[in-house]
User: Which sequence fits this backbone?
């Protein structure tokens, strides 16, 4: 049975299949009967709950409040913001009828032709239109601003090519929507949210990110500026892991959302929106995991420590249980989740393989000989290193080890990204090297034509204009057009 658990496709053989195998075999999710949708299983949802819980705390520190808006949006709302609808039209699912009935022969269920909706409804691909329709009723004066709302919900985008967590037709996310009295305040808030996302992804997912601004071509539909965090996966591809948008007054004008300023004159409000989704689960899997299964940073692991007793007789199990109970209580008092696995229907080897597959950060094994010697075997999942250590003081050792694993997982991912980030200003060289993945820091002339040619020739895109690079002192020429460079940008193939 242990062998069956470990039968993952190797990353080096087929990275895509390895990912799909891992999602299914680690009990994170499974495919649903609806094309492109997934069922998130309890173990996978426990990770999402931790992501959701911590981000929700950070949002509320900035004064954001949660609300909920309808799943169905009148089609006429989309027509009010042309750029926005253009960006989502091909992915929108439409509800046309409100009732089913049995067929005349009673053998089938059909759509009732008499139950056609007067106006078709869109299953939300995002909620800007519904929310800005609502904000018109909530905002009247400068005293109502800023208005800071977020909702945790599901959305539907009818994707043609899907992959669990990374790109599914239905997915879970949060979408924040704020209204402000000035452009400066709105853009500043969009930048604050980018920092929240970046700090969370690095601090909790242990995934290093590049903070940047999207090119005009890659902006969110209807935005004036899109801020992004870009992460590198182990195959060298980029994964957009969170975005924050400065929307200007586009939606306010489309939905006539105005406020009376301090001079009692009407003005259109300024807007932002921002979101992360279950795509973060994909980042977590692909940035850290190995051929044995998941490697989870301790902060997000549903089970942080598992204790497996090795015994032959009941009296041995009783003695081991009595020995470890105080340690379990001490760890739980420190906020660490512990599982004591004394299930006698599974062999120890099966348990070891299962917990490796599920990415449990620390495993403790204690048997009859350990009781005699006052020892316990400790294994850390990230490196698979094992050692026998004194039982006394084991709780403190485990606490320290979890901190060390969290830092170690991040540092390994950061080092990998550094080793696969290159400066390049030769297009022929770039076209050859991009096939093997990586982030390329390249000069760009700022034109959509150059950007389109790169994408057509290589399937790579400008991921962002990195905020860490001084863009006021860019020299050199664009590697495609030969024109003077205006920006240094990160180019990569992406999910």
Assistant:
């Amino acid at each position: 049975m242990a062998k069956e658990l470990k039968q993952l496709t190797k990353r080096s053989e087929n990275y895509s299949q390895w990912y799909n195998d891992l999602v299914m075999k680690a009990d994170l999710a499974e495919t649903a009967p609806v094309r492109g949708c997934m069922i998130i299983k309890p173990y996978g949802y426990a990770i999402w709950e931790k992501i959701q819980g911590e981000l929700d705390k950070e949002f509320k520190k900035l004064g954001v409040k949660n609300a909920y808006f309808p799943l169905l949006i009148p089609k006429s709302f989309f027509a009010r913001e042309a750029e926005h609808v253009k960006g989502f039209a091909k992915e929108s699912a439409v509800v046309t009828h409100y009732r089913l009935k049995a067929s005349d022969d009673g053998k089938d269920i059909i759509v009732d032709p008499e139950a056609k909706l007067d106006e078709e409804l869109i299953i939300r691909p995002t909620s800007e239109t519904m929310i800005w329709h609502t904000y018109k009723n909530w905002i009247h004066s400068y005293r109502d601003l800023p208005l800071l709302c977020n909702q945790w919900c599901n959305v539907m985008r009818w994707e043609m090519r899907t992959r669990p967590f990374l790109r599914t037709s239905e997915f879970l996310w949060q979408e924040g929507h704020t209204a402000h009295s000035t452009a400066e305040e709105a853009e500043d808030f969009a930048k604050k949210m980018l920092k929240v996302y970046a700090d969370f992804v690095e601090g909790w997912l242990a995934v290093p990110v590049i903070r940047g601004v999207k090119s005009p071509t890659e902006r969110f539909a209807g935005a004036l500026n899109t801020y992004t965090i870009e992460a590198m996966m182990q195959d060298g591809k980029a994964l957009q892991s969170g975005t924050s948008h400065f929307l200007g007054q586009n939606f306010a004008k489309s939905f006539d959302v105005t406020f009376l300023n301090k001079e009692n004159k009407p003005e259109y409000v300024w807007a932002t929106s921002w979101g992360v989704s279950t795509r973060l689960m994909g980042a977590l899997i692909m940035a850290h995991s190995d051929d044995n299964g998941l490697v989870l940073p301790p902060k997000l692991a549903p089970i942080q420590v598992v204790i497996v007793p090795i015994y032959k007789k009941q009296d041995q199990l009783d003695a081991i249980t009595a020995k470890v109970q105080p340690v379990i209580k001490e760890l739980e008092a420190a906020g660490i989740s512990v599982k004591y696995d004394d299930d006698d229907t599974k062999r120890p080897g099966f348990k070891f393989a299962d917990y490796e597959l599920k990415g449990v950060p620390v495993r403790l094994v204690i048997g009859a000989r350990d009781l005699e010697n006052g020892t316990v075997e400790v294994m850390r999942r990230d490196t698979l290193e094992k050692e026998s250590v004194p039982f006394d003081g084991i709780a403190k050792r485990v606490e320290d080890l979890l901190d060390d694993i969290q830092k170690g997982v991040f540092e390994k991912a950061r080092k990998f990204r550094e080793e696969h980030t290159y400066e390049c200003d030769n297009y022929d060289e770039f076209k050859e090297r991009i096939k093997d993945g990586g982030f390329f820091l390249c000069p760009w002339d700022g034109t959509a034509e150059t950007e389109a040619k790169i994408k057509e020739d290589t399937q790579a895109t400008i991921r962002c204009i990195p905020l860490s690079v001084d863009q006021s002192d860019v020299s050199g020429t664009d590697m495609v057009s030969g024109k003077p460079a205006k920006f240094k940008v990160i180019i990569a193939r992406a999910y």
About this structure: The chain has a mean pLDDT of 96.
